Amino acid sequence: MNTLTSVRIDKWLWAARFFKTRGAATEAVAGGKVTLNGDPAKPARAVQVGDTVEVRLPPYTWTVQVTGLGERRGSAAVAATLFTETDE
User: Fold this and answer.
1) 3-state SS class at 6
2) CB neighbours (10 Å) of residue 7?
3) 21 three-state secondary structure
4) Contact, 49 vs 56, CB < 8 A?
5) Measured between alpha carbons, how far is 50 from 29 in angstroms, rounded to an integer?
6) Could you say which of 41, 44, 61, 88 would form a disulfide bridge with 36 (CB–CB 3.0 to 4.6 Å)?
7) Angle at 30 (CA atoms; ends 19, 43), nearest 5 degrees
8) pLDDT at residue 79 is higher than 60
9) Is residue 10 within 8 Å of 43, Cβ to Cβ?
10) Strand, coil or helix: what is 62?
């Protein structure tokens, strides 16, 4: 059973398959390409269910609502359960 209440944002982005490696996720967060609830994030910032994450990787920008937490990268089907896309 998943008893996590929060996860580092770089781990979550990697588990949700926004990035192929955790290192790439860490670089993107440190480089200002990720915001958490509208504020710039640092790699160790905690993500919780209900948070809004914006990922800017030109030419795309994803704004997603966190619906699940994961520290490990799983299948694409599992990753899809970690977030829902907003209308934006």
Assistant:
1) coil
2) 20
3) coil
4) no
5) 19
6) 41
7) 75
8) yes
9) yes
10) strand
Query: Where would I find the beta strands (DSSP E) of the chain?
Result: 7-8, 34-36, 39-40, 46-47, 52-57, 60-66, 83-85
- pTM for the predicted model, two decimal places: 0.90
Query: Model confidence over 15-62: pLDDT tens digits?
Result: 999 999 999 999 999 999 999 999 999 999 999 999 999 999 989 999
H helical segments located in 18-69: 22-30
Residue 88 has what pLDDT? 62
User: How many other β-carbons are positioned within 10 Å of the β-carbon of residue 10?
Assistant: 25
Query: 85: Cβ–Cβ under 8 A, 6 or more apart, which residues?
Result: 62, 63, 64, 65
Tokens for 32? Answer: 């200002």
Taking only the tens place, the pLDDT of each residue in 59-68 is 999 999 999 9
